[in-house]
Amino acid sequence: MGCLTAGEQKYSRGLEGVIAAISSISCIDGEEGHLIYRGYPIEVLAKYSTYEETAFLLLKGHLPNKKEYEEFKQQLKENAKLHPGMIDVITKFMMDAHPMDVIRSMVSLMGVFCPDKKEHTLEAKYQKAIRVTAKLPTMIAAFHRLREGKEIIDPDPNLNYAENFLYMMTGEKPDELSAKVLDIALILHAEHGMNASTFSGMVTASSLSDIYSAITSAIGTLKGPLHGGANERVMHMLDEIGSLENVKSYIENALAEKKKIMGFGHRVYKAYDPRAKILKDWAYKLCEMKGDLMHFKMGEEIEKIMIEKVGKKGIYPNVDFYSGLVYTHLGIPRDIFTPVFAMARSIGWSAHIVEYMEANRIYRPRAIYNGPIDLEYKPIEERE
Ligand code: CMC
After folding, report:
1. Which residue has the CA at smallest separation from atom 8 of ligand 1?
2. How far is residue 164's CA from residue 313's CA, in Å, rounded to a whole number?
3. Hey, which of 79, 182, 225, 349 would disulfide with 162, CB 3.0 to 4.6 Å?
4. In this structure, are residues 108 and 213 in contact, taking their beta carbons and an 8 Å threshold?
């Protein structure tokens, strides 16, 4: 039997270190803690760019000129509304559904309501990618309002992407700092190399499936607590800890029990996640403006103890540690943290999917077989 068996091939658990694509979209230096998108350090983009501009950069590969930027923003605005058929469906969902399940289903539904589903040109792929990114905030906000028994709010074409999301959630135009902090959080979550959800989307696309199916797969993968779901868990942990005084004993006990502290550790970063560094500063500004530094101080204390105890193992805060705090103080409900991650990351997913499809080869890894061979087939009557 020609089964692949242990010893013949090296098995990398969790595909650690396996190279699955060649990409010019982003680069992570996990040892030093650096991240660049298409050649630009994220610190620079967080300082000078906007989510819309960064989204263009990731998808198209260069910073837009003025005309391209205006057109791209316009495309996002024009595509933000949901098809009436999609609104019809979302109103029929169970209102206690998890919003990640809702957006996964709604993006899947976009394939059904797609006007150019038979078009597979590069331009059509860009169009579909832009549509998904444009509609995600509208879907999230629509479901949130429906479950609260409120009317859905249409996107406002006078607002930018981050402002519009907060507006559609609450019905109020956000203050400048809140909109800015969300914009930066979206930039920082927009792309992150070959992570689990991106890979999952690429695997789906590699069978020459469509962008909606690929992003549906990616959303399903992002949902888990080891990936996008960690920020929600960070806030549950802060609740459990309860006060600044309890932090030390809580963390020490959790580590002694070999529990994982949510918002810490990363497969690639063995230094401080550069996204967490940027978000931490903005989290402070936001909490200070809101007049509530409690969570921030607890976060700093957890960080201090964790670095003391496990920093030498390369475990530092990751982006999700401070994003949970930011979203909480933006008034975003906890179960919508991961959907916000998805709306930001949709563009990174699309960029990788489009890039991979340009030189596509179906993903088809193998498994080492460790089961039996040559078993005797017994008729059912003779089996125990
Ligand atoms: N708290 C305590 N110990 C940890 C943590 C943590 N958060 N993360 C890793 N470790 C320890 C782990 O116990 C193991 O120790 P030992 O070698 O003594 O058994 C060692 O570090 C390696 O951990 P691992 O689970 O094998 O690492 P991984 O690369 O498979 O997992 C991870 C990476 C992010 C899933 C993991 O660090 C984790 O579960 N973190 C908590 C969840 C989290 O914050 N996820 C968000 C990731 S950032 C957003 C994103 O990009 O998705």
Report:
1. 265
2. 41
3. 182
4. yes
The residue whose CA has the least distance to atom 52 of ligand 1 is 227
Tell me what percent of the residues of the chain surpass a pLDDT of 70. 99
**Residue of 260, 319, 322, 327 with the most ligand 1 atoms within 8 Å of its CB, for mutation:** 260
Are 301 and 353 found together in one domain? no
Q: For 191-204, write each residue's pLDDT tens digit.
A: 999 999 999 999 99
Q: Say yes or no: 338 and 291 in one domain.
A: no
Residue-wise pLDDT tens digits, 49-75: 999 999 999 999 999 999 999 999 999
Q: Residue 88: which CATH number?
A: 1.10.580.10
List Cα–Cα distances, 133 to 78, 157, 211, 344, 349, in angstroms. Answer: 12, 15, 12, 8, 10
* Contact (CB, 8 A) for 348 and 202: no
Each residue of 201-240: pLDDT tens digit? 999 999 999 999 999 999 999 999 888 888 889 999 999 9
Total domains present in the chain: 2
Of all protein residues, the one whose alpha carbon is nearest to atom 23 of ligand 1 is 265
Nearest ligand 1 atom, CA 228? 52
Give yes or no for a contact between 290 and 329, defined as CB atoms under 8 angstroms apart: yes
Which residues' Cβ are closer than 6 Å to ligand 1?
14, 192, 195, 226-228, 230, 260-267, 310, 313, 315, 318-320
pTM for the complete prediction? 0.94
Mutate to test the pocket of ligand 1, among 264, 272, 321, 325 (most ligand atoms within 8 A of CB): 264
**Structural domain boundaries enclosing 238:** 230-329
Q: How many CB atoms neighbour CB 226 within 10 A?
A: 13
pLDDT in tens, 301-342: 999 999 999 999 999 999 989 999 999 999 999 999 999 999
Q: Whose CA is nearest to atom 4 of ligand 1?
A: 260
Token pair of 169, please?
A: 């959630």
- For residue 187, report the distance from its CA to the centre of ligand 1, in Å: 24
> Which are the catalytic amino acids?
266, 320
